[in-house]
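Q: Protein A?
A:
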Amino acid sequence: MRIVIQRVSEASVRIDGDLVGQIEQGLLILLGIEHDDTEKDADYLLQKLINLRIFSDADGKMNLSVQDVNGGILMVSQFTLHAATKKGNRPSYIRAARPEQAIPLYEYFVAEIQNQYSGTIQTGQFGADMKIGLVNDGPVTIIMDSKAEI
């Protein structure tokens, strides 16, 4: 399981022109699920995500988590995070989980964030053609992969 974490001052997601999710200060999370991912991968990344200290404290040092600043979380599914690009010019998504496996894990991840985090949580829609707007704060962008870090 792979996530791209972007510290934002604002972010939103639209589907067919309709606003379906929006946050102010917080984290935009792009979540890619691989065919061999499990709830264990989700649990690991979730703990890292909500405790990651990437917001500035009073001294301007990145020392606060999204919980500490009561920031929002905008979660968006992103199968293209598992693109294989070594051969040719057209990415292969063979490692990305099929929807019948990915949807339950995506829903599990979102449900667990809702259980463990009391701040604002918004989502996109799995499988939809989404338009993401964001103001990356910093910029701060971090990539985590449950397979690379366990």
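Q: Protein B?
A:
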Amino acid sequence: MKPEKNLVYQPFAIISASLAVFITLSFVSIDKEIFGYKIKEVDLFSEIRFERKLHETPWPGLVFDQRSKDSLGVMIKLRDRLSVINYTPDKFGAMAKFYEALIALENKEGESIHIGYFGDSMIEGDLLTMDLRNSFQKKFGGRGVGFVSITSIVAGFRTTIRHSFSNDWSVYHFNNSGGADHPAGPSGYSYSAGNGSNVTYKSTGYSGQFSGIHLYYGAGDSSGVVKSKVNGSEMSSTLDGKDPVNRVVIHSGSTTGQVNSAFFCRPEQNIYGFSFEGGKGVYLDNYAFRGNSGLALTTVPKKVYQGFSSLMNYKLIVLHYGLNVVSHDIKDYSWYEKGLKNVIDHLKESFPEASILVVSVNDKCYRFPTGWETEPDVPILVETQRKIAEEKQVAFWNLYENMGGYNSIKGWVEGDTVYANKDYTHLNGKGAKQVADMLYGKIMTQYELYKKMKVKK
């Protein structure tokens, strides 16, 4: 018998040959079909390769595919992109409801109005919104932070109001739905109290003393009671309203620096939060929800939004999202486009007396092998947000361009004055104030033009 061949090297030969083929294919562009099947490109080095495919763009060094190049071309042609753009035939129509309400306040004729500022972690802790609110209140009146929810994951670092609460609240939100029985409010949250669940709010130098305190809650009966302590006095209020959203006055008139409320309700009773106001004017409600793309806003029932709209007189809704949408390898945002259109339709029906303003995502950097650079997909998302605003005829403000466009946040992080955090994404307090001042300035410029236009007519 012949001795058997030693085949120990054969597997290595097969593996080596296969590896050689795959390495070769990694450097070859394949665009072929065999029997109707497209051959998928192979790249063994995709995780470590950094190959720029540059197009002619105003910002050399950024990686763009053809779609993003085309989107940038559209953006560059928008000479008024730094302003608040109204996508309506009369140029101001998208913001007209808000401007009319401001005119009434300025003429001492109108009622207090609310702005609902919806966003993600960019406005968490009342960042940006605190400065925007302050600017509006200086010009149009009002004193107070507006709506504040029952609990908050940022209560420890919010400076515009001090906020503490017991740990026995049942909390329902976008990521922990209470279903039809516990629908979320505009903050994205609703709450159910235990027997004596409590919450305390204290004024700060920013908010000043409280003179008007209101509680917002869902439908209930006479078994629901809230007991509050204000200025050493105790008061009890029955939560027996029958509407999807109801309001009860906790305190009015004299000023106070603190309110403590304890709730004794059935588990089915929904509690939403308090509003802190003083005098006629503008109140801006911070509706931040960390990690939110904004698409979850459609899960809040219209009847809940409409209840808040009626009670709080909303005249402007701001949608400021994008940080949790943009991703390093997403080039097609059609899913987001469809979702945000649905959100805008939902809000138009829910807040029929309010203008709607879309604020684009800010500049955000990604750590390339050569250093920090703007995420390639940021301009694509910005253009997607602009297109949505144009189609839905709502107002749009390009924050990305107002910051300086490509790689601008590097200057905000690395400049002599630091305006952003080292994640090259989020603004710090100084940066948030810069953005708030820019947005307020753009809105006021158009507001003055709107008033002049009315006079001419």
